[in-house]
Amino acid sequence: MPVKNTRAVMIQGTGSNVGKSMLVAGLCRAALRRGLKVAPFKPQNMSNNAAVTVDGGEIGRAQALQARACELEAVTDMNPVLLKPETDTGAQVILHGHAIARAQAGDYAALRPRLLQGVLDSFHRLAKTHDLVIVEGAGSPAEVNLRSRDIANMGFACAAGVPVVLAGDIDRGGVIAQIVGTQAVIEARDAAMIRGFLINKFRGDPRLFDDGFRLIEARTGWPGFGMVPWFDGAHRLPAEDAVDLRMSRGEGLHVVCLTLSRIANFDDLDPLAAEPGLRLTMLKPGKPIPGDADMVIIPGTKSTLGDLAFLRAQGWDQDLAGHVRRGGHVLGVCGGYQMLGRVIRDPLGTDGAAGRTKGLGLLDIETEMAETKRLVRVNGEALGHPVSGYEIHMGQSTGPDCNRPFAHVPGPDGAVSRDGRIMGTYLHGLFADDRFRAAYLERLGVTSQPGYETGVEQTLDELAEHLEAHLDVTAILALAD
């Protein structure tokens, strides 16, 4: 049953990638600026871009950004169910920050009662300790074929009694059909939960859509809360999904990151993308590593062994060998670090089929996978400078190159080759630290631009102001009363 006196409002979307995460982040910061104690909440997320929480679990990275918008530490209750895809049909299921199962798509229905109860428990805890909870849906409520096992959209909204605002994306076209069509296909009880709509990502003169806006209101009977122009500062906030990965706008040192099939925690790269003194290329599958690359990054991945095979299928192993022969630098992060070694052993089949797999051989280390996942925030020193970050991985790496650790946090982390050009680390988020980023880039001849974290804060404020200027934020928040 819904909690009495719960103040909450939910943003659902007409589809994936319509900007729900950013809308919630902006509304959270707007509510905070109005003096409310506000918290973000997403019942279920599907992403390999995870954050380590202060209570020792993991949640979707977008909810960590939303927590920051609320000036809160991220906790597992903000995203109680996280699905981390491992194959095209299977995912690791995270409940309250910790893995409970590996499930195929067809197995998920059996887990629904347990997951829904976990979702409601988390929501109720947040609701009891905050003035307002702003909830983000997932995908679209129009996926009515999934309604019977839904806990992310109307399944949650109905169970918790939370009013919904439906967001459409005009940039992709067909926004009238998006919103009117959603009402046409969902059940009447679900449609009754929707109290209005908004339109996101408008470019141009908004007056040109006045007739369309009124048509949607007339066809649906839902009031419109406004039309949000394209927010130019979006690129300064961590990307919520791998489809949002962008090339950088800088020039100079050429840094190439391999876009693995299960790339994870890719917002590690956001501070580099913001640097004007380097050019970051997100290399797509099927493309060779450019000959002018100065540094190649092998990023984190949800499946080290699966993406090692994927890397080899692209011919990137041969390209990397050539890059190193030419004097290039390589940085492996987490799963990418494990790939750099001589061998990866997986005796329990934790990351795939049990057995032994040959690594890239660029670092003299060996990795053994384990069932236990390490989830921890860390502080320490790297390259002689303070560094902070987090670890989220399974397995341990040992070998001669570990005698030259990448960092001390406070114990030794990672490994460095004898010539210093090949480095590996389990640390995520390290480039967000201005001091470490400056030291790392200085070794490569680049002068870093400080203020990345300050820039994120400024952008969240700008986003809140943007929404206040173009939406009836007062009316949206009043739905929670």
TrEMBL record:
Pfam families noted in UniProt: CbiA, GATase_3
Keyword match Flavoprotein: no
Claim: Nucleotide-binding is one of the keywords in the record: no
GO molecular function, one term: catalytic activity
Keywords: Cobalamin biosynthesis, Glutamine amidotransferase
GO BP terms: cobalamin biosynthetic process
SUPFAM superfamilies cross-referenced by the UniProt entry: Class I glutamine amidotransferase-like (SSF52317), P-loop containing nucleoside triphosphate hydrolases (SSF52540)
Family: Belongs to the CobB/CobQ family. CobQ subfamily.
HAMAP family: CobQ
Protein name: Cobyric acid synthase
Organism: Paracoccus saliphilus
Native organism taxonomy: Bacteria, Pseudomonadati, Pseudomonadota, Alphaproteobacteria, Rhodobacterales
